[in-house]
Specification:
It contains twelve helices and 16 strands. It is α/β, with parallel strands linked by helices. The strands form six sheets. The protein has a five-stranded mixed sheet, sandwiched between helices. The chain has a three-stranded parallel sheet with strand order 6-3-7, with helices on both faces. Helix 5 (160-171) links the parallel strand 11 (152-156) and strand 12 (177-181). It is globular. The two termini are 25 Å apart.
Length: 344
């Protein structure tokens, strides 16, 4: 019998229902059915953050967050192009996910307890371990965050960045002023024009935004890290199948790197006798079918974007303009903290 993806969805498919506090919640299995019936994945991304989600002049999106959505589309449709990107401000991103305007939020978003438990979301993993820092002018004589006492700091509103900023300065009895903007680009322009002494966001974002400055080399990112910022995709609560699909797509990319499976050697690895590789690539077991996907769902995801390491290096690694080292985002076997449960 030919593979029929809709026959594998299962569960309650009565549609989207409203939770007690108003946000849209998908019944089990409904999200995958809706995505397939629509013919494409609706992915919420940033309004332009190089290395994570950023469009070129032709509207082609690149970055870790965009690539994750391509991998998810490939796992579902066997076609990474079947995704549409919805640029969202930090202020609007959660409403778009709650209301069902997007199927997944993949927008350099920090996984926190309140977001995980109070907004009706589930985070499916960490695509980038980050931390908040500051960008300053090299000639300003600022070497640490404490040197910013009494200064003015630009940031984006509606983010954990503002809260971390308040925690850091107030816990140390230091004064500061903040200029908040709805869009990152507005904040970085204000900093570039000298309206503030520093610009703060996640360190990865600082490296990305520095490229937009009039003179990037005249600015530096401080070594100080004042918070934990595990960035990852989020889905609406209420559809465990969809949550599993998103989570295991990320896990597949991580496991592929650990097992040495790349976009370049994928066809060769399909013939591997390694049982871990065989399970990952759908040659043994029924792991894809368990979540409503084809047996070779991971093959298509890896072919689309490569393994996690390939995705990292292509978008933000040391050979890119951002020049970011793997650090915490290296595999656990290489001194980092990236670690995925096994496919078995």
């Amino acid at each position: 019998m030919p593979y029929d993806p809709l026959s594998l969805i299962g569960g309650d498919t009565r549609g989207v229902v409203a939770s007690g506090d108003g946000e849209a919640r998908a019944s089990a299995g409904e999200t995958l059915r809706r995505v397939r019936n629509r013919g494409f994945l609706q992915c919420g991304v940033s309004q332009g953050l190089p290395g994570f989600s950023s469009p070129d002049e032709r509207g082609n999106w690149s970055g870790i967050d965009a690539d994750f959505c391509r991998a998810l589309a490939a796992a579902i449709f066997h076609d990474p192009s079947k995704v549409r990107f919805r640029p969202l401000s930090a202020k609007d991103r959660f409403t778009a996910l709650q209301s069902g305007e997007i199927d997944i939020l993949s927008r350099n978003t920090t996984w926190t307890m309140s977001r995980d438990t109070q907004l009706g979301f589930d985070f499916v993993g960490v695509t980038y371990y980050d931390g908040q820092s500051f960008m300053v002018r090299k000639n300003a004589g600022i070497e640490t965050a404490k040197d910013l006492a009494g200064g003015t700091i630009c940031t984006e509103t509606g983010t954990t960045t503002e809260l971390n900023l308040a925690d850091y300065f107030r816990s140390r009895g230091l004064s500061y002023k903040v200029l908040s903007f709805e869009k990152n680009d507005e904040a970085i322009v204000a900093y570039d024009r000298g309206r503030c002494d520093a610009y703060t966001t996640d360190a990865s974002g600082l490296y990305a935004q520095r490229l937009k400055l009039t003179d990037p080399d005249a600015n530096k990112v401080l070594d100080d890290i004042i918070s934990k910022e595990p960035l990852g995709p989020a889905v609406r609560q209420g559809d465990p199948q969809w949550e599993d699909i998103a989570r295991w797509t990320l896990n597949a990319l991580l496991n592929a790197e650990e097992l040495g499976v790349t976009s370049g050697n994928l066809d060769e690895m399909l013939e591997s006798d390694n049982p871990r590789v065989k399970r990952l690539l759908g040659r043994e077991g029924a792991y894809g079918e368990a979540v409503g996907l084809s047996p070779d769902w991971a093959v298509h995801a890896i072919r689309a974007v490569g393994n996690y390491g390939e995705m990292f290096e292509r978008n933000v690694g040391t050979e890119t303009p951002l020049g970011i080292k793997r650090g915490l985002n290296a595999l656990w076997t290489e001194g980092g903290v990236q670690y995925a449960p096994p496919v078995r």
